[in-house]
Design a protein that fits this description.
56% of the residues lie in helices and 14% in strands. By secondary structure, it is of the alpha+beta class. It has two domains: 282 residues, Beta Polymerase, domain 2; 37 residues, no CATH class. Strands 2-1-3-7-6-5-4 form a seven-stranded mixed sheet, with helices on both faces. The longest helix has 66 residues. The chain is rod-shaped, with a radius of gyration of 34 Å.
Length: 353
């Protein structure tokens, strides 16, 4: 209900209107700034968006990371200062925007999804946006907590390659951190599928297996929807002749594209495996039903001739041939037992039992 409510907020709004469509509406605004070059490094934590303006215009490379997409006023202020298009500001706050790349003359705008499993093994999809400008990168996240700590540590290290390159390499490093986390996620997905497969073969037709398969199938589709469009995004950046993307960085972007292809292929494989598990489950249910029907059919086949004999000799006619036979009762039982044993032997010989 909450997700639908937030989506409806943006309906009917004029294009370029900044409306936060996520669910983390109580997130506090948090800003961290990294100002650096090969010899210089400064790291700051800020609470006011206006304090970031002086870093954007500074000579070194600047990375400004903004947490809290619910603070649309702050997004509007930095967008106005950097002269970002209103449609970009709208997409920054729209958490349902698919991964994409928008090229403008003075900057590049990239949207992607940051994926991770929470403490209760619940899949979380976080909306992340990047703006690459002349000597700076702006990143926008829904809340504090991300996968960029390796990038931060490399910036703090004076010997890191990232300090010797431009803002385009910083954008690559941030995107690469997100994609590297995809591999960790995919590994967990593989472990979950193996556990689900083991559970299917051990428990067979347990009632909760269907729910688990359907739930996990939805998770795979969400992951695929978040990751697959990124192939086109990275490919376009790698082939772009934009003035902010150097030939040196394009080589790294080509490697990033290969990683995205690998992740996408693994997701497609796991998707097929989930469908296969559903087929196995349905086959198991069908086989169990067939076993039940086979047993019932065999029982019916055995008792049909016995019921036939009992029905004949249960009729109330005075002139039945065997009615006054002294050993008729025992003979009838002998015939019925013989038929019973004979049918059991026949079914076993046919391997139906």
């Amino acid at each position: 209900m909450g997700r639908t409510k937030n989506i409806k907020k943006s309906l009917g709004q004029a294009p370029g209107t900044i409306v936060y469509t996520g669910t983390k509406e109580n997130t506090e605004l948090f800003i961290d700034v990294f100002d650096y070059d090969k010899q210089f490094f400064e790291e700051k934590e800020l609470d006011v968006i206006e304090d970031t303006f002086k870093y954007i215009d500074s000579a070194p490379i600047t990375w400004i990371n903004i947490n809290g997409l619910n603070h649309v006023d702050a997004i509007a202020k930095i967008g106005e200062y950097c002269r970002l298009h209103p449609l970009i500001l709208e997409d920054i706050a729209n958490t349902h925007q698919r991964p994409k790349l928008d090229e403008y003359e003075d900057y590049l705008f990239v949207v992607l999804k940051m994926l991770h499993y929470g403490s209760e093994e619940q899949l979380h999809i976080e909306h992340v946006s990047f703006v690459l400008g002349n000597g700076f990168v702006l990143s926008f996240q829904e809340a504090d907590g991300d996968v960029f700590d390796p990038v931060r540590n490399r910036l703090r290290n004076t010997k890191g390659r990232i300090r010797a390159n431009g803002a385009d390499y910083l954008l690559y490093a941030l995107m690469d951190a997100v994609v590297d986390n995809y591999f960790t996620l995919i590994e967990k997905v593989g472990d979950k599928i193996e556990a689900l497969e083991d559970s299917l073969f051990e428990n067979g037709s347990a009632d909760d297996i269907t729910y688990e398969i359907q739930h996990f199938k939805k998770e795979i589709l969400k992951i695929r929807r978040a990751v697959s469009p990124l192939r086109e995004v990275v490919s376009r950046i790698e082939k772009s002749d934009h003035k902010f993307i150097s030939e040196k960085t394009q080589l790294y972007l080509r490697d990033l594209y290969d990683h995205i292809i690998q992740v996408s292929e693994n997701i497609d494989i796991y998707r097929e495996m989930i469908w296969g598990l559903m087929d196995i489950y349905l086959t198991t249910i069908s086989n169990k039903m067939n076993e039940v029907m086979k047993v019932l059919t065999i029982i019916a086949s055995i008792f049909i001739p016995l019921t036939f004999l009992a029905g004949i000799y249960g009729m109330n006619f005075e002139n039945m041939p065997e009615l006054r036979f002294r050993y008729g009762y025992f003979v009838l039982w002998g015939i019925m037992v013989t038929i019973f044993v004979g049918l059991i032997y026949y079914f076993k010989r046919k391997k139906w039992l």
